[in-house]
Amino acid sequence: MNHPIQTPASNTAAFNQKRKKLFALLAVAVAAAGGGYGTYWKLVASHYVSTDNAYTNAEVAQVTSQIDGQVADVKVVNSQKIKRGDVLVTLDNTDATLNLRQAQADLARAQAQKIAAESDLERASIDLKRREALAGTGAVSGDEITHIKDAENNAHAALDAANASIAQSQARLDRTRVDLARTVIRAPVDGVVARREVQLGQRVQPSVPLLSVVPVQSMYVNANFKEVQLEGVHPGQKATMTSDLYGSDIVYHGVVEGFDGGTGSAFALIPAQNATGNWIKVVQRLPVRIRLDPAELAAHPLRVGLSMNTTIDLQNKS
């Protein structure tokens, strides 16, 4: 039986034909993949924008003392959960208590002075009426009546001074009561204690930070989207987020609340000066604030600064 002889030319032609078929199949596969991706982008992907440049944040409450004083007790530690009104720090109240007692004594003295002034005024008024009744008979001289009028005027002035002294003493008493109450520093909001710097025995002054309270129940997300992604983003749109802390199994749901007033670079300590000869355009990111669901936060608490993967649905609104 005779077999056809394979020549080099026939081998090359067969190889070229096979390669053309493979390239044709590859072109068909690429075209199909491109068409599929285009369809997916038009029907699905173009309706969402996503970023992994997102972080949790909260309106952290900074606790400071409103008066000078020495720390007598610190009742909280970092990471401790607290409720609004819980005692955080107490200051030595010895000076405040003494000032309160002094203010109470000053008020009592002013009130006694008022009583004496009222008595003097009443007596002077009675004397003046009696003298004026007798003036027509000539039994009382004009000088005597003038003297009684001066006494009445002086009693009026003493009463006015006593009333002013009472008002001043009352204000001082109210202030000392406030200062005494301020020796007990309480939590302004519910949350978790963070950055506790105050120590027992420390001398504190107003405006010096003692600790912070993070309201974890009011956490939100700052998602830094590229400026080219924000054309279709509007307040009220729904968003889904996952945290690196819990993984992709835990999904948070939120709502877009708004946009920051500027990009991060615009508010940097040293803003970029783009009016230079070697300027290179860099796509900027604008923080988008997203409100989280309080129930989901309660079930899976977050902390400030955690990374979040964020996707915004450009079609749906809450």
UniProtKB/TrEMBL annotation:
Signal peptide limits: none
GO molecular function: transmembrane transporter activity
GO cellular component: plasma membrane
Residues that span the membrane, as ranges: none
Compartments (UniProt record): Cell inner membrane
p-hydroxybenzoic acid efflux pump subunit AaeA-like beta-barrel domain: residues covered: 218-296
Domain Multidrug resistance protein MdtA-like alpha-helical hairpin, first and last residues per copy: 107-175
Cited SUPFAM superfamilies: HlyD-like secretion proteins (SSF111369)
Top-level taxon of origin: Bacteria
Membrane topology designation: Single-pass membrane protein
Family statement: Belongs to the membrane fusion protein (MFP) (TC 8.A.1) family.
Xref: PANTHER family: MEMBRANE FUSION SUBUNIT OF EMRAB-TOLC MULTIDRUG EFFLUX PUMP, MULTIDRUG EXPORT PROTEIN EMRA-RELATED
Family matches, as NCBIfam families: RND_mfp
Protein name listed in UniProt: Membrane fusion protein (Multidrug efflux system)
Species assigned in the record: Paludibacterium purpuratum
